[in-house]
Amino acid sequence: MALGSDSLDAAWQDADRMLGQLFMMGFEGHTVTPQIRKLIQEHHIGSILLTAKNLKSAEQTTQLVLELQQCAHDAGHPVPLLIGIDQENGGVNSLFDDIYIRQYPSAMGLAATGSRELAYEVAKATAQEISACGINIILGPCLDVLTNARNQPLGVRTSGDDPQEVSSYGIASMNGYKEAGLATMGKHFPSYGSLEFLGSALDVPTITESLEQLSLNALVPFRNAIKEGLDAMMVGGCAMSSVGLNVMHACLSEQVVNDLLRNDLQFEGVVISDCLEMEALSHNIGVGGGTVMAVNAGCDIVLLCRSYVHQQEALEGFKLGIDNFNISLDRVKVSLKRILTLKAKCTTWEKALNPPGIELLSKLQPSHTPLSTRAYNASITVVKDKNRLLPLSNILEPDDELLLLTPLVKPLAASAAARALSDQVTSDSPEPHIWERSSSVMSGERVFRELGRSLARQRNGRVLHTSYTANGVRPQHENLINRAGAVIVVTADANRNLYQHGFTRHVSMICNMQYTSGGEKREKPLIVVAVSSPYDFAMEQSIGTYVCTYDFTETALVSLVKVLYGEFSAAGSLPGTISQSQKLSQSRQHWLVENFNEERDAAGLDVLIKSSAEGITPGMHSELSGAISSSFTLRDPDILEQHFVVRNSSTHALYGFCATYFFKATGTGVIAAIFVDAGRRKLSIGHSLHNRAIRTLLQREGIKRFQLGSRLPSIYLGIPTSHGGERRRQRSWFANLGWNTALSRSVCSMIARNLATWSPPPGMAKSLQSAGADFDLVYGAGYADAVLDHIKTNNRQGLAEVYKMALNDPSACGIIRAKRPEDGALVGTVVLYNVQSQLAEFVPAMKDVGELTGGISSPVISPAVGEYSTLLQGLILLGMRQIKQQGCGACILDYMDGDGNFDGLSAMGFSVLHNFEEVSCDAATWTMVPPT
């Protein structure tokens, strides 16, 4: 095969042969299917992508690859097929074989070893193994920089968040692959490390960084790998949105492929598109049109992973593009020359038709097995061990029981283990289901069961092992924690599986509250092990002993057990900037805080509210459930409201929101809500919003005091305390900002359900007769003077506004009054309202219960009344009767004193829905906390 600079061999005069070389296609099945055979024989496709769904073992893979090459040879292909797989190691391997293919650490695991030489050796060994099976291109290295590390699906598939470190390990891996004779493909250009996940399921993730920002960070590894001779580049299907750049799909954009990759970075190798079967692309553009766009953008090979229908559509679209002069044959020839140059580097017909297979693999294993062990042993990282719990012999007596708590997880979507899984878990039992073993890695609970067995084999005392799910800490878990001498909690990508965060913090709280038989507090030893992303608890101060393995393959966990039992000391270190002290100290960033603009920000706030409500600790109910953007907009002339946002100016996505109100009547400035997107917490967004809110409230004329929590709107009545371990964290956060949380006031909202079958407690109606009050229900502004005079006995902010709103809405609100019989003076009132009232708009729980609901709000009892609780129960009882008569199935009771005796209310059918701590302080003494 001779390739002149201006001409191609005569074999390529056939246009179909040329076009076929510009496609990489996949299929489903362990043997050559009629569809893929037809694509090779009739359409002359030049490249094949194999996935875990095609590969069962090294021997079967060798046979399958040989059959594919033989099919191409017999069909008259001038050059062999380019056949590639993902073999990133860690949890992402397309080919697995217990006997002949070794397991090695993930990219981040190798970075944790601190050895580029080891990364090179592992890459070379990996390439030798898959090359023996006939594979000639590897879809790697992964060159993404995790600039948005805590919200990333890539996880440990890349080396970390430092561009120079990612670059050096990526190039080491690339050179290892090349040494073994494989072609290399960098991914995922221009970067999957800073994606924002916005919009619907049919929208692609978006890069919001500008080209200047990308150039300084994310593009560094790609630029350096190109200089070192990278053979091919995969351009991702992500969108790009920043000033001067608006790209729907990067791989279809001439700005990205030709301008940025070809011209700016001077890449001369083969460009491969992301799979054009992705839903967002096929729905928005169509596969045929996408194929034409990809080629015109500069892609040399168009990837279609598995759908035969889509593959035919792509071929037809390409030919139609040629016929309609949308694509020139000269353009096709440019790509063909690049592809043939690449194939000449990594394959020949002699090599393709004679894969060494098992014979060579058998010779490689004696050296590859110890390499695997050495790499894993070097990667295990003890991030911190404050109380010196390691090795376990330091803290456990021989007969003590050790408790292992592991999550029910699915492996990374890119691995073979993502198939044949069931996520049906019994809600009332922590007993695990057993995931099936895949052809890639042992996944989920199976590998954790083996971890438990490995721990048990090393000691005399029993190892208790059970799983945990989104159902949280169950009584069975608490019983096991109480009897165990030490506890190990395993997490796997807790930042993407938030229930693991909540569960681990809850277990930590239980372990911190253990007592000896003599009543002395004795903290139970707790070890947290992150078996995927190291970011799970790297900055969590409450976790004293934290170990990272970077993947949960069997080999990784064998090394973990050795560390736990002291067979060797862990030598790994956290990769990238996370290991630097300034990162761990959580230095604060300064975010641009803007005024909330309803027209611009309402849709974004609705998205933020929904994601924040869904991100709450599983098993807990979010105060935001049922809220919408308008829930924060009072439009009351007696209340000055100003709200703030931190947002992405390009995508308009909101990262944080803060609502503030100034109640003129009482001189109270209120922070009524402050919440941040779950994926961006601990980045100082909340701190920036809080500072802006306080500075604004300080400028209000007549400001007397600040308050955390607001009666109106009734969303956050203060610091939420219903979420277990979150209470301590949030109280600490506000205390660090200057709030005296030690002087908080407990308030709550309550709910009574099943009103259809509800009846007052026996004897309660009779006891109310001794309360010395007459009760009635009134509607309308005609009763305002007396009612508003009465509630002045209580100076809580927002009460007057609630009552005014109710009095001005007689069709949906009323006031239940308690009067002294002798003079008719008011001694107690509550507001009664229904779901049609204006007030209900500011009580999200009213619409979140799931059935027709009524509300009782803001009870005020005169301080001179002796029978406070009896009078309160009387007002509420009459309200419940009214609500039941209206056909409601539930009753919300909001803004109640949380320190009160709830026995009477519990007897009436109420239970606590949300707890809060309302905090107030004198505005005159407020000191702004400077950023650190």
From TrEMBL:
TM spans (from-to): none
Domain spans labelled Glycoside hydrolase family 3 N-terminal: 18-342
A molecular function GO annotation: hydrolase activity, hydrolyzing O-glycosyl compounds
Coiled coil stretches, renumbered: none
DNA damage listed as a keyword: no
Family annotation (InterPro entries): Acyl_CoA_acyltransferase, GH, Glyco_hydro_3_C_sf, Glyco_hydro_3_N, Glyco_hydro_3_N_sf, NagZ_Beta-hexosaminidase
Keywords carried by this UniProt record: Glycoprotein, Glycosidase, Hydrolase
One of the GO biological process terms: carbohydrate metabolic process
Family: Belongs to the glycosyl hydrolase 3 family.
Protein name: Glycoside hydrolase family 3 N-terminal domain-containing protein
